[in-house]
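Sharing a chain and its predicted structure for anyone who wants a worked example. Both blocks are below, sequence first, tokens second.
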Amino acid sequence: MIKKFAAIGNSMDTLLCFKAIGADIFAFETASDIILALKNLGDEYAVAFITQETAEIMLDELAALRASLSVAIVIVPTTLSSDAFSVDLLKRDIEQAIGTDAIFNK
């Protein structure tokens, strides 16, 4: 079975970029709606991309979800992102997955 990937955020402008490459998109404004959506992705999805602005409203809950769900949760920067928060998390995730910094080489 081929698994799907999802994009979750609060800006349709950003989410439409993911839709263009085949993602199922979900737009939510509140942390509780986002948490429920993540829990409902189930085994049908392999990856859920979450925009940095969306992740920032639920950091504590997101850490617990990343540890407990089977779907990989990846926080991605957007044009609205003002710092390197999501880039640093992505770097850490890559290092954890493959054991080295293969992308940024720092």
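Comments welcome. The helical segments are 12-20, 31-40, 52-56, 59-68, 85-98.
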